[in-house]
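COURSE: Structural Biology Practicum
ASSIGNMENT: Worksheet 4, Part C
STUDENT ID: 0417
INSTRUCTIONS: Below are two proteins. For each, the amino acid sequence is given first, followed by its structure token string. Answer the questions at the end about the second protein only.

PROTEIN I
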Amino acid sequence: MIDDTTDIQITQAATASNPAAPGSDARGPDARGREASAAELASADAGESPKKKRSRSGVKGAKGKGAEKGSEKTAAKAAAAAIEARIGHHFADPSLLVTAFTHVSALKSTKKRGDSYQRLEFLGDHVLGLIVSDMLYRAFPSADEGELSKRLADLVRKESCADVAKSLGLLDDIKLGAVGAGAGARLRKSVLGDVCEAVIGAIFLDGGYQAAAGFVERNWTERMHKPRRPLRDPKTVLQEWAQGKGLPTPVYREVERTGPHHDPQFRVAVDLPGLEPAEGVGGSKRAAEKVAASVMIEREGVSGGSNDG
């Protein structure tokens, strides 16, 4: 008969010879060491102060924001390079290009209107006039002052500048504030001429007269040699026609005003006795009146009228 002492000895021997026996740890020393290290790290992390945790988290967040800003800067540089390629001038001062495309509605504070394109537009308007005047003087040596003045007026008007900006694909590059999609599209079209003049002003400041002259010559020479369009005000043409028919002076009346305060649209009608009213729409009353007069002129078959200018 085997006593209790013998049973205990047998059990101990079996456990020593069989590491997988119940109650034993079957993992090797490396696995147990890795688990201990992980446990120590978890314990250290648990004991880390909230301030240190926030610091580590802040570093990660800063890296993410830094990468995002870097990506935005890269995209902005690519967009600027694309615009420069279209206008044919590389800016030594990129801020001039940014300002030339910034509408006042995009400014955080309207007190800093100098950060919009308005000052550059003022400068560009006069630079354009000088350059085109020089081009006309050299291109038409037989033209008198009156002829040159009429050609100049046709070439530097806002509509001509807007045509140039449109041909260069500058419409979608204009930076606007939160004015709504529909209003934004109308506003971009209405300020295209202003932006073109601002670009000329920016090029003049960045590269001097020769750089600005190069831009104007590339985009205005062909226009300068095209047959000159009628420059007579359609309102004047309509009034002279009415007087010739023994009719009173045309009467213009505002029918409707729509759109936001910074981008209004006027609908105006022109009336003459015995004729159906004609209507026109424009960004100002005067512009709408000219369109209305042009509509009536075309409808009645009057020659010499144009809604340009």
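PROTEIN II
(use this one for the questions)
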Amino acid sequence: MSSTLQLDLPGVQARGDSGRAARPATTPVPFVEPTPAAPVQARKLSKRFGANLILDQLNLDIRAGEFVALLGRSGSGKTTLLRALAGLDRISSGTLEVPQARAAVFQEPRLMPWKRAWRNVTLGMKIAQPRERARQALEEVGLAHRENAWPSTLSGGEAQRVALARALVREPQLLLLDEPFAALDALTRIRMHQLILTLWRQHRPSVLLVTHDVDEAVLLADRVLVLDRGRIVSDIAITQPRPRSAERREFQLVRAQLLQLLGVEVEAPAEVLVPPVPKPIATPFNFSNFSI
């Protein structure tokens, strides 16, 4: 028998394994029939905090296994949208369909300091062999050797990897990332980019990454969305093959376009010219300069 999830949020519906929509919440709103290709669908989604309209009749699709990045100025509603998708905030109106299995990773690891790393991974889960499941998840993020560590002894990158393992052990169909690399140093951030792409390829969840970093968005995502005043104003497909390089002209063009959408004036990137490799010049060997 398939399982379904009933969310006590107006207009939010979650699907079980069968793909059928769960029953409407207590306050039903018009439901938009989903398509199988888009497990995440929002239609005319709005969110108010008092008199402030944060999300304004927003429409969004995220396809199965798709990696989507969300950019926007501060206060544009990025985290509000992520929290709505995670089921942490009620929506004010509209319809929202999300997979039943979801997990979120935030800017801070949010580990329980009184629990060892492996217990943080399986926190709140009632599963058989929790330590073995935690060990497997920690091994995927390269931290099997730190399963007994206390959170206070972990570096910032290690703590964030434990948080990522905690998300992956739940086998999410939708992985929500709220600026998870923002507090990391540059080298650790590069390693985390490589790790998240590896794990995404292995598990194939749909991913929504909220970030302020334009380069990060273009490096990682299949699509980059720009949110402004509660609405998605741009949806750009990133067609460059992975791994991507910020030195390539295609990357620079997309970067410049996104920065302009965010209100940053930039010059169009110059042509990237690769100098030709000079041909070797054959010269006779001068024995007078040779000595043993």
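ANSWER KEY EXCERPT:
Q1: The domain at 12-101+172-261 is CATH 3.40.50.300 (Rossmann fold).
Q2: The helical segments are 78-86, 117-121, 130-140, 156-168, 186-203, 214-220, 249-261.
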